[in-house]
Write a sequence for this structure.
C-alpha cells in the first residue's frame, strides 16, 4: 500500500463516469472467453480463487484511485495492476496455507471471525451494515461468503503463528513499541471528525452554460496550482465553489467521518493538516480540500489489543522464515493464474 459527503455539501460517490481525457479507467486484468464465464482468477492445487473475491478486495483501492486520478493515465493503471497482482498473490498464498491447516485439523473461534468482520465493516463502510451488504451484492457476494473469506484469512494468520511458534517470543518492550507505532490505525475510525476548507466544482455549472466536464477539470487543476503557489483558499472558494459553504470561504467544522464517502475519508484524513488535496472526482464534479484540523476516534488501550499486537510482532520476527516456507509450498503446488 477519495470529497464528498453523503450530505448535500459532500455528495456520496456513485460509479465514476469516463474521464474527460481519452484514457479510460483501468480495470483489473480480466480473463477472456470461457474463463470470463467461470469467474476464476486462479486455481491452487485444484482449489478455486474467484474473480468476485479479488474484485471485492480490490474495490476500495479502485474507488480511491478513481477519485484521486481524475485524468486516469499510466500511474493510475500501474497502481491498479500492482494492487490486483498483490491481492491475487495473497489469495494464492492463503490457499497454500489453508491446505496445510486442514491437515492439522485447526479451528478458528467463531466470535473472533465475527469481530474481524465488524472491524472491516467499520473500515470499509463507516460501520454502515446496509451499505456494506450493498457493496457485497455489487461484487456478487453475500455476507456468508465474505465471512468465509475472512475466516480463511484469519486461518493463515493462525497457521503462521503455529508454524513458527519456536520463534523467540515478543518481549514486552517490543509489544509496547509496536503498539505505539500502530495504535492510531487501530482506532474506531467512525469517531473521526475534521474541520476543512472545500472548493466544489460541478461537472456542469448552471452559472456557466458553456462549461464542460473537461473545462471544469482544467479549472480545478488551475485552482490547485494557484493554492500551491500561495493563493487564498477562502477567496478562491468564494469565487469558484458552488455549494452552500462558498460564502464562508468553504469552511466546514467538525464534520464526522461517517458523513463522508469511505473512499474519500481516507484521502482526507491521512495527509498532514494543511495539505491541499485534490482535485478529487465523483460523478457530480470535483472537490479540492484543505484539512485544518483532525480529531481521531477512540484508540483502544494496549490491554484490549495485546494479543493482536503480539501477533504482529511475532509475524515480523518470523517474516524471513515464512517467506522461505511459502516459496517451498509454491514450488510443490499446481498454480494456474487466469489472465
Amino acid at each position: 500500500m477519495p470529497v464528498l459527503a453523503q450530505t448535500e455539501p459532500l455528495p456520496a460517490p456513485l460509479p465514476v463516469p469516463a474521464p474527460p481525457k481519452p484514457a479510460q479507467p483501468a480495470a483489473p486484468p480480466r480473463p477472456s472467453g470461457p474463463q470470463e464465464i467461470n469467474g476464476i482468477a486462479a486455481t491452487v492445487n485444484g482449489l478455486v480463487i474467484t474473480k468476485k473475491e479479488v474484485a471485492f478486495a480490490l474495490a476500495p483501492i479502485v474507488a480511491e484511485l478513481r477519485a484521486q486520478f481524475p485524468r486516469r493515465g499510466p500511474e493510475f493503471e500501474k497502481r491498479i495492476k500492482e494492487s490486483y497482482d498483490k491481492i491475487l498473490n495473497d489469495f494464492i498464498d492463503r490457499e497454500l496455507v489453508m491446505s496445510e491447516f486442514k491437515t492439522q485439523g485447526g479451528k478458528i473461534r467463531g466470535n473472533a471471525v465475527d469481530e474481524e468482520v465488524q472491524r472491516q465493516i467499520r473500515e470499509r463502510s463507516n460501520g454502515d451494515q446496509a451499505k456494506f451488504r450493498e457493496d457485497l451484492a455489487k461484487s456478487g457476494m453475500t455476507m456468508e461468503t465474505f465471512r468465509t473469506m475472512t475466516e480463511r484469512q484469519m486461518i493463515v494468520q493462525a497457521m503462521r503463528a503455529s508454524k513458527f511458534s519456536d520463534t523467540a517470543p515478543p518481549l514486552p518492550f517490543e509489544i509496547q513499541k509496536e503498539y505505539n507505532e500502530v495504535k492510531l490505525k487501530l482506532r474506531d475510525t467512525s469517531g473521526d471528525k475534521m474541520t476543512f476548507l472545500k472548493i466544489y466544482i460541478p461537472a456542469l455549472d448552471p452559472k456557466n452554460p458553456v462549461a464542460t466536464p473537461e473545462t471544469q477539470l482544467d479549472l480545478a487543476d488551475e485552482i490547485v496550482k494557484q493554492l500551491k503557489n500561495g493563493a487564498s483558499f477562502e477567496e478562491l472558494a468564494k469565487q469558484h465553489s458552488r455549494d452552500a459553504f462558498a460564502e464562508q470561504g468553504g469552511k466546514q467544522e467538525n464534520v464526522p467521518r461517517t458523513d463522508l464517502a469511505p473512499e474519500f475519508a481516507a484521502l482526507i484524513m491521512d495527509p498532514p493538516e494543511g495539505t491541499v488535496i485534490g482535485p478529487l472526482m465523483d460523478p457530480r464534479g470535483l472537490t479540492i480540500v484543505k484539512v485544518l484540523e483532525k480529531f481521531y476516534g477512540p484508540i483502544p488501550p494496549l490491554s484490549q489489543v495485546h494479543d493482536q499486537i503480539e501477533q504482529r510482532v511475532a509475524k515480523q520476527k518470523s517474516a524471513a522464515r515464512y517467506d522461505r516456507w511459502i516459496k517451498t509450498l509454491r514450488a510443490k503446488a499446481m498454480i494456474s493464474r487466469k489472465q
In short: The longest helix spans residues 74-103.
